[in-house]
Amino acid sequence: MFLGGHANTMDAKGRVNIPACFRDVLRSQYDDERIIVTRDLLDNCLRAYPMTEWQTWLDKLRQLPSSNRAVRRIHRRVVSAAVEFTPDKQGRVLIPAPLRQQAALDKMIHFAGTNNTFEIWDSVAWEQEIALADADVLDPVLLDSLGL
User: Fold this and answer.
1) pLDDT of res. 131
2) Across the strands, what pairs with 93?
3) CATH topology of domain 5-145
């Protein structure tokens, strides 16, 4: 699973190193270094899926009626923006300009592990998100369902 947060820099061409521990997870738990990077459905960041997790997510999406406007919007926002990557020997991927712009990625990048996926944030946006999360009151029903 993808755990923790990791800071990195992105070069002027949009290349960034995937954290070594995340690449280790791809190799050891998924036996496949390929990832799908796309827009996050709810937040202003990118989400990276191991290939098998992406396929599982697409399978769930396929079960939903395409006549539903929200389903079509998910396809447009997430699926149509998806790009497949295999990190190079140095662990880098080249994030295309449209994805960098959509997530407002600048030079400093933050990778956030989220269990079976990971997020790619602009570092300033990540700090703002964490400040909001720290100030937010968590849903007591949700906490109770998690046994917390």
Assistant:
1) 86
2) 16
3) Chemotaxis protein chec (3.40.1550)
